[in-house]
Amino acid sequence: MSDKTVQLLSLTNDVLENLRKTYLNDEQVKEFGLEKCEEQFHQLLVKLATPPAFTTLRINLHVVTGDKYTIIQSVKEEIEKQYLRKGWKPPEISVHPTLTDVLVIPNRGPNINPDQTRSFKEVTVDHDCGMAVLRGADVFVQGIMGAHQDLQEGDNVAVYTDIDGVCRRGMTQTFTGNKKYIGSGVMKASREQIFVTKEKLSGVGVEMNQPLYEAPSLYGVLPAYIFPQNLPSIICSRVLDPKPGETILDMCAAPGGKTVHIATLMNNTGRVVALDKTPQKVEKVAKNAAAWGITCIETYPFDSTQAVNEAADVSGPPPYPQASFDRVLLDGPCSAFGQRPCCRNRMTLNTLKSYSTYQRKFIEKAVQLLKPGGVLVYSTCTITLDENERQVAWTLQNFPELSLEEQVPHLGGHGMLGSTLKREELQKLQRFDPTIMNNDQVDVNSDTIGFFIAKFRKICKR
Ligand SMILES: C[S@@+](CC[C@H](N)C(=O)[O-])C[C@H]1O[C@@H](n2cnc3c(N)ncnc32)[C@H](O)[C@@H]1O
């Protein structure tokens, strides 16, 4: 099967049906009508298969040398150089209207130029590589699955992503499976160097000079100054509102984008405990903290569902006694259906359904670890009701010591209808959904990944 013009996110049938029921739940249909809900669900599948319309970068305000203006100038110059080298018009880079430490770069596309570029010899890349290319990356050698037999360094190539994950590595024939055109570029190595040479090649394999979407390639660009981060993730740490000197727990921290942001908002004073189950991932948190000159973060590989122990000491490694933290961020494992772009997700319905039960284990521990008066932020990068609004309803029902709080900043939409939450409670939730978010206007606050944020305060001891 060849590449289609309008790409929809491809899901297993039962997951598709489950998500459809979410978006067409009785309350939604009663409020907006069946036709509108159907249209919105279709739009969702289209949006999830395409990249957000903007790239956002958080600036490191903690750097000792250089002020914000100098950093912004350096970033602009670096990106401008990159665009000019690729033969593109430099983008209009601006500071976010509300978040003054965020730079916004509009992405351009889709740039469909099929006649010229699609006649080039083909390179096929795996799904993850393809999705990164749609967000501005070049093709790294490790992502290349198939390449025409006599391809040489310097050749122009048309790049396709293998949607179903069936192209065998090293394939020489043109891949005829389900594929999507993601642009064209120039080979930075020959086919032989990529597949035949003994020493393992790394780095850029195809520099994308005519991608489907023009967006900055940010790998290795000023890592001490900028952190590419999706807008809802940036908002999430702001909603937590950590203060200098406080003790914060980040229960599922890796790779650490939010952890480092939290520590930055605290002016690197106080204590941020960052836990993650996977040791290699925890190393990334430490690396990101070091790159930003942050010293108030402690990282530990640990299962957060085991993080409470009354006999433990509050200082040092986990576990910790109850009421140890001023604020807790629970940005835990989720079905991640809000990630954009994604052309294909083979998650089973059982796996999808398992997340809300797993998340409740973390919520229970988070509530215990919070001091009275403390703040819990619960977030996911998904769009399901079970992991979001219904999870909030369950939390309020099971932990009467929690109250649901207003969020600042609130730049996303409100909670979706379809749980037992009241309208005034839904107003306090922040749901980023590229379709629910409304209107015809695509702006940096609306055309984002799918994301959800709830903020609670522990108002009394149970
Ligand atoms: C959504 S990601 C966190 C992203 C992170 N907060 C950030 O902004 O960079 C979820 C993380 O939960 C971690 N995780 C899964 N189960 C866990 C557990 N039982 N204890 C601690 N971390 C866990 C995963 O390894 C993964 O890194």
Automatic annotation (TrEMBL):
Keywords: Methyltransferase, RNA-binding, S-adenosyl-L-methionine, Transferase. CDD domains: AdoMet_MTases, PUA_NSun6-like. GO terms for biological process: methylation. The keyword RNA-binding applies. One of its GO terms (molecular function) is methyltransferase activity. Belongs to the class I-like SAM-binding methyltransferase superfamily. RsmB/NOP family. This is SAM-dependent MTase RsmB/NOP-type domain-containing protein. It comes from Sinanodonta woodiana (Chinese pond mussel). The lineage of its organism: Eukaryota, Metazoa, Spiralia, Lophotrochozoa, Mollusca.
